[in-house]
Amino acid sequence: MPLEPFKQSDPLTVGVELELQLVSLSDFDLTDASPDMLALLGRKPFPGNVTPEITESMIEINSDVHTRHGELLEQLRRIRDTLVHAGDMLNVGVCGGGTHPFQKWSERKIFSKPRFKQVSALYGYLAKQFTVFGQHVHVGCESGDDALMLLHSLNRYVPHFIALSASSPYFQGSDTLFNSARLNSVFAFPLSGRAPFLLRWEDFERDYFARMEHTGIVKSMKDFYWDIRPKPEYGTIELRVCDTPLNVERAAALAGYLQALCSYLLEGHEPAPAEDDYLVYNYNRFQACRFGLDGTIVHPKSHESLSVREDILTTLRRIESHAVELGGEMALEHLYHAAHAGSDASFLRDQYVSSGSVEGMVDAAIQRFRSDEANRRM
């Protein structure tokens, strides 16, 4: 099937997808509750969209398209409140986090949906191991050429989003020593990693996608698990490297950061992206996954070594005027605090120490998801 034409959308509009954990409140393990949860949520209007994910112990929620950070945050809070209420009725906890700290992949059930069954048949045990939880952020683009320019210009900032969202330090019952272990599961898929370096939509459509489709390997953009991918049917680029944060405030702030950063890049404040920028890409990605905010990355143009934390703080200051124009001041303020205070991965490790168990860590994540960040500080 030919690639859909790139749909023109309003530039810098944003939408968020969050993959969320469904947890048994008796033992804090994942529970196969998505069929019951979706049936309950389907009884009345939902403040956004909610869909199944590949295994029955997870669901995905989608926001509407927004132009302002405040509107997005308000809707995410309403979605959260609806999910928490439904979970209470089913005795199911709902939480973020990029991985569940001790669930066993072999116990997961594939959701009964044709595409999920096809993925399971193709990828075997990797499909159940894909019970990991990410945040995806869409940004509207005026054209396919703008989408590809932004996609490749953002390669240098991918470590920022990994480090700021990192919430998957534990996996299969052990501390991985990574801040984001989730991305290691994603990297196992053959069509993951980075997109090919093409800057014209015509070239992407004709010289890349058409050839890939001809090989029989891919049928649509859904078959690519790239860190950032274009979504022509929406007219967006989709950032896919973030772990699902532990609260909706962090999720909205990350979207606001990406929105302001895209505004900054579209105005041509940085040199045009080049293929050689990707020489340091996998190294930088690893540093952010392994060490989070304490990682050290290499600038793709100057080859200067940079602290991830300091690079984030410098960038937040640089794009502040763009955030103000887009109504995203509170998003940047949230991330200033996060860069100094530490990521959700640090919070989860602290909870393990204070509770003495992985179950206590999950309980803390459930409680953190339930209420507004402001209420927790009171």
Low-pLDDT regions: none
Strand and helix order: EHEEHEHHEHHEEHEHEEEHHEEHHHHHH
Give the averaged pLDDT, no decimals: 95
- Binned, the helix content reads 40-55%
How many DSSP helices?
Answer: 16
Main sheet characteristics: 7 strands, antiparallel
Please, could you describe this protein's structure?
The protein is of the alpha+beta class and 378 residues long. The protein is 46% helix and 15% strand. The chain has helices at residues 34-41, 69-90, 114-123, 125-129, 144-153, 158-165, 182-186, 201-215, 248-266, 281-291, 308-318, 320-325, 329-341, 344-355, 358-370, 373-377; strands spanning 14-24, 49-52, 58-62, 92-95, 134-140, 170-171, 174-175, 192-193, 225-226, 228-231, 236-243, 296-298, 305-307. The strands form four sheets. Strands 1, 2, 3, 4, 5, 10 and 11 form a seven-stranded antiparallel β-sheet that branches. It starts with 13 loop residues before the first strand and ends with a helix.
